[in-house]
Specification:
It is built from nine helices and eleven strands. The protein has 241 residues and is of the alpha/beta class. It is globular and about 50 Å long.
């Protein structure tokens, strides 16, 4: 293994990131780019688990606003994450990266059910593991899934790969010219300041399990590799106070 800062990571890839500029659906070119970025990190010997969002296909909140029962809408969102996971798996395997998809809702024809010990074994064997289907429960986001899985597999860090956002700001930099970017924060800062990094459940879970978080721009070439190698890009969140 190369001399990297992190040996086992959970990479959170939002659905929006996989949609690219088109804003909806799966952009094949973007997925190819993301797969190659992941391969460059895998080639270093780093153990990689991935949590996919599904917002490029469906959002539970959208369904609720349409009058749909929240639990039903959330289950639809979980199905969307599986579609993204399969697209990413296909692209990774086409470039020689062994990959397994594990779902929290069983669908054995296309993926393994999530089993923690089996996931860890896959990682130890050098396979990329993609966690799909969220936590398997409504009312929990894929951010919470990332924090939960990171704790379960004893990951060194959660990497939050954002779509054209290079870190955490005091306000939305696209609408507020006075927004200030933070280089470092604590998990408690995220909660107390109400910063839109991840939901409060995910932040609390990360803090309670002392899991650092790095928020960075997925669209910049080699950023995942740079973070793994210890470069100070984006915003690093760690500690509770």
């Amino acid at each position: 293994m190369a001399n990297t800062k992190y040996k086992r990571i959970v990479l959170k890839v939002s659905g929006e990131a996989l949609a690219g500029d088109q804003g909806f659906g799966i952009n094949p070119e973007i997925v190819k780019v993301v797969a190659n970025e992941i391969k460059s990190v895998h080639d270093l010997g780093v153990q990689i688990a991935i949590v996919c969002g599904g917002g490029n296909i469906w959002r539970g909140v959208t369904g609720e606003q349409m009058g749909m029962e929240r639990a039903q809408a959330d289950y639809m969102g979980m199905m969307a994450t599986v579609m993204n996971a399969l697209a990413l798996q296909d692209n990774l395997e086409s470039i020689g990266v062994p990959t397994r998809v594990q779902t929290s809702i069983e669908m054995r024809q296309i993926a393994e059910p999530y089993i923690r010990r089996k996931a860890v074994r896959h990682l130890e064997k050098g396979r990329v593991v993609i966690f799909a289907g969220g936590t398997g429960n409504p009312y929990f986001s894929t951010d919470t899934t990332a924090a939960l899985r990171a704790a379960e597999i004893d990951a060194d860090v959660i990497l939050m790969a954002k779509n054209n956002v290079d870190g955490v700001y005091s306000a939305d930099p696209n609408t507020d010219s006075s927004a200030v970017k933070f280089d470092t924060l604590t998990h408690l800062d995220i909660i107390n300041k109400g910063l839109q990094v991840m939901d409060s459940t995910a932040s609390t879970l990360s803090m309670d399990n002392d899991i650092p978080l790095v928020v960075f721009n997925l669209n910049e070439p080699n950023n995942i590799k740079k973070v793994v190698e210890g470069a100070n890009i984006g915003t690093t969140i760690e500690g509770g106070e």
